[in-house]
Protein: Alpha-hydroxy-acid oxidizing protein
Amino acid sequence: MTTPPVGPGRARQAIVYRQGALGRRPSVPVDAAELERRARRKMSRAAWAYVAGGAGEGATMRHNRAAFERWRIVPRVLHGVTARDLGTEVAGTPLRAPLLLAPVGAGALIRRDSDVLIARGAAAAGVPYIFSNQGSSPMERTATAMGDTPFWFQLYWSTDEPLVDSLVGRAEACGARAIVVTVDTTMLGWRPQDLNLGSLPFARGLGIAQYTSDPRFLELAGARPAGGERPPVTLGAIRTLLSISRAHPGGFWANLRSPLPRKAVETFLDVYSNPGHDWTQLATLRSRTSLPILIKGILHPDDARRAVEAGVDGIIVSNHGGRQVDNAVASLDALAGIRAAIGPEPTVLLDSGIRTGADVFVALALGANACLLGRPHLYGLALAGADGVRQVAENVIAELDLTMALTGAASVSALDPSLLARAAG
Structure:
């Protein structure tokens, strides 16, 4: 008799149930609704507003979830499939499962050293992490925490071209496997939850560690490049750092390395994103890096076609988690049209609205090659640090594996629209 292999779904269940027999429950809820509820209780008002808030009245966030609810998975039985292969490759990066952790800035609102903790959790789960350009730890430090697990770097295109080159060069040097250019945030959307609190983390020095650790940025801010003599710490600088500390836990420590805290903040606000960013500028990136390039924030088929014609290595269908344009099209609704426009070969990833392994299954069946998980991994971070990130990622992968088992899908390449039905009405 041959014993069927134990996939990640049954393995995760076994751990939880065995601990349950000893009276121990998971420190991180395995269902999305309770995960969100408990994380909210852990976060400050400013942290919750930034992480969970969306643009305008939140219609796009609701659309993202409604889009998944319009699809039904159709289980298949007696198929004889006992083993699943969740492995795949996107843009040259091998994945143990079709899941990456999405970049989310200003994580120090939740926990000090957030990026390092997320990296440790991602590495423990064997899931790549896309470092945020608005991270709270320098990319080099976060890269060390990833160990041998692959990671990518998200780029916001600055108004200063040498800064773009510096950030890309640093990402290459510390081992990033791809550059993800976010193109839907050339300016911040209208975010009432943040606005009602008057809370922009970057204005308080949170989420700008990629900049304050960058020699070109320090030059722009009037500080000496890295390696130069540090200017004296003034009373004004100390007061600024203390005010950051009082306003947001972790802010003080996130800015200790910045010799000119207030000037650094002002410089960041001047240069961080480029409202004039266009296809011509984007085309120059191919000659500026040898890394694969993915474009994040595509929702229109014509933009997808143009990106493919420009030679990018992948498209990420995304509405920024509903944080940029209110009442925008759901990412999942945009996916089918984009896949039809560009054909089956180009790499397409999806984010915005992903909460569960069943969501990942639906997205893959509709044409995505992999998915990015955003808010849920930050909720895990809030509840249990690095181990919370690990648990959230492993739970999503476990449910994906079990869903594949119960539909007879032996590999992620076997997922297609035949395993789905459109909901009536």
Observations:
- The chain has two domains: 8-198+273-422, 209-271.
- The two ends are 48 Å apart (CA to CA).
- DSSP finds 18 helices and twelve strands in the chain.
